[in-house]
Amino acid sequence: MPGVMDSGELTSSTRGDISWIRDYLVTGLAKLSSPPQCTARTPMQVATVLRTPALVQEIYSYLPILTDILALTSSSHWTRSVGQSIATQRFTEIVRPFVGDYTAKLRHHMYTWGAVITGSSAWQMLTGCHETSNNLNIVVPTGGFDLIDEFIITSLNYRRVDAVTHSNYAFRSVVQSFGKYRRGRLRITLCEAVGKDIFHIITHSPTTADMIFMTPGGIAVFYPEWTLEGVALLNQTVTSRVPGKNVGCIENDRYKVYSSTTFLQRPCEDVCPALWRNIADDGGRSLVLEWDLRYPIRASLARSHSTWRLAEHCGNPVCPFNPSINVRLARLPPIVTVTDHMSTREQEARLRYHNPGYARYYMGLLYATAASAPLLVPVPLRDGVKELSHINDLEVLHWVDCLGDNKFSVDMARARMTYNVIPFPPSPAHRHGYTFFREDPALYPPPNALIRNIVSDLTRHCSMVGNVLVIKHTAGNKHDIVELTLQDTETINSVIRSTIEKAEFWT
């Protein structure tokens, strides 16, 4: 009998033995954990099923949702290889209509250039839906457009639609190159991000249900519960709901699209559209699944410096982050930019008055544009953040406006620079780093007279503009914040002087 079971063949007696599994799967996976008959099954019977590939394959056939497939895959070494092959095969079946025999080459290009697939194809991967999609959406970082464009036209024999040269208006500020291609009824769209971080494009999607993307080995969903429930919340990058002007789930009958979280009929809490979210460390709110570690997706997320929010203000009438019902919300960035000692203390008073109160404060050093000396200022955690796990959790907007023209998504790597300081003589216990936050130059902030005065004796001209905020942390780990004091001023000034002299500071 062991030889027969290992062969994967389904004999009549074997089918009778596992009918209880089929019955449970048909009646619903939710009942599988405690069905009445389950107590009658022995570990030997369960092991017998798991050791039979054909039976494991049949179990998988009842699991369309990718989360269930990967949960079963990780449950035992018997199910692992079968589950991985099923997930890989699903990806292949989704892209094959578009790329034919070039699936391997598509995987190679996606891995090499850090590209992802978004839209209905990613949704198919998640849900196992058998709807036939005629559109494949590819997003690449800056520098990857020309190679993928050539691959689509030369290898896949698509024709570029020259009449379409721009992406949908919701993505205009974050897409630098766009191509639309057609072959029969099939279409491919290619978006090249402004910068290396492709997640700006994802977070500019028209709705929460569109914020889903995949690599050949993993998938990420930023709003998984709503997406799987057929609920979508509008992103404020959308300015029109006229039929035909939008893409994605706005015009998809599968989703019920809301303009605010009023439908919750309760306070929003951590799903509030006005709260900032951090791609690199999202506090477990996103769903990230991997089935092939050769094409990882978690590593891409961890390298991202992007943060985003769906709205400047919440429209839910019972949410404390709705300014129409809560006058104690601090306006960020401030209407009047902090410039000197007096305006700094006024902004600190607003920060302390803010309600709901911030969970914690760290001390930073502010180089305000018209101040006579650097000033110690409190830097709180962002609204909704209970404890710091990433430097992006700090609410620096009280002191530096790093948003620029984009109020909903920001690449924090453009807004900060980190320098690690090694004391002499070397002492591991006293090694620290300093991260400098600046204002977005697109706002045309005034020159920083304080920094100019600090480096006035240098031959190199200082053209630093806007406020600069400095945070202290352990060397090599900017997410481990250390309390800063005025005693750090001399060290920070020396960092500023050294980096400006070497042309390593912002200009």
Q: Could you explain how this protein is built, in words?
A:
Helix 5 crosses helix 7 (77-99). By secondary structure, the chain is of the alpha+beta class. Strands 3-4-5-2-1-6-7-11 form an 8-stranded mixed beta sheet. Strands 13, 14, 16, 17, 18 and 19 form a 6-stranded antiparallel beta sheet that branches. 29% of the residues lie in helices and 18% in strands. It has 16 helices and 19 strands. The radius of gyration is 27 Å and the shape is globular. The longest helix has 23 residues, at 77-99. The model is unreliable at 1-18 and 24-40 (pLDDT under 50). Strand 13 (361-367) and strand 14 (375-380) form a beta hairpin.
Mean pLDDT: 86
**Within the largest sheet, what's the order of strands?**
3-4-5-2-1-6-7-11
Distance between the ends: 76 Å
The best one-word shape is globular
- Specify Rg, calculated over alpha carbons: 27 Å
- The total count of strands amounts to 19
Number of helices: 16
Question: Descriptors for this entry?
Answer:
alpha+beta, 507 residues, globular, eight-stranded mixed beta sheet, six-stranded antiparallel beta sheet, 29% helix, single chain
